[in-house]
Amino acid sequence: RHEEPPAPTAPESPVVATEWPESRGNPALTGVAPGQVTPPLKLLWRHMTDGPVLSSAVIAHGRVFVGSDDGKLHALNLADGSVVWTFDAQEPIEAPPLVLDGRVFVGDTRGVFHALKADTGQPLWKFETGDKIIGAANWLVSGDRTNLVVGSHDFLLYSLNAATGATNWVYETGNYINGTPAIADG
């Protein structure tokens, strides 16, 4: 019987070696994974979607989360690749997801940013920007609340309350944002 590892109790909990819950591994986007890779490597499983996959996959709680141009976010069992759930955003998902506090956050090419329950894929809230979102969200703790930061091709960087999706602030840039904002040293 496969049992899910417990979810972190706070966003600042350390990531275990088998997890990669966000784009480039952590809020500073260092891209450094703990552990060792020991050759020879072998393919364990594969999963086909109904469209190209431009999104990077993330791994958390024994699952792989990846978006596809088929308009779906796929949650797969890390051990065997079986489908746990699929969320239909009805627009291509090219942004890498973010898994945090039992939720999955991901944007789509229509400009909708979705918050879902990580265990079921049930929608919790959504936030609409003025253009497509192809970069992953990032996160930070401010006081007693977790906030998300996500950019859009509408030239805006948004800070959202992770629990509710309410806007904290919006910053206008000089061009579209197609990457993940890094957060480090405050």
Q: What is the strand tally?
A: 12
In spatial order, strands of the major sheet run 1-2-3-4
Overall shape: it is globular
Q: Determine Rg (CA atoms, Å).
A: 16 Å
**Amino-to-carboxy terminus distance:** 42 Å
Q: Helix/strand/pairing class, anyone?
A: mainly beta
Which percent band covers the strand fraction? Answer: 25-35%
Mean pLDDT: 90
Summarize the biggest pleated sheet. 4 strands, antiparallel
**SSE run:** EEEEEEEEEEEE
Task: Give the helix proportion (percent range).
Answer: under 10%
Low-pLDDT stretches are 1-15
Count, helices: 0
Structure description:
This protein has 186 residues and is mostly beta strands. Helices cover 0% and strands 34% of the residues. The protein has strands at 58-60, 63-67, 72-77, 83-88, 98-100, 103-107, 112-117, 123-128, 138-142, 145-151, 156-161, 167-172. A 4-stranded antiparallel beta sheet has the order 1-2-3-4, with no helix packed on it. β1 and β2 (63-67) form a beta hairpin. It is globular, with a radius of gyration of 16 Å.
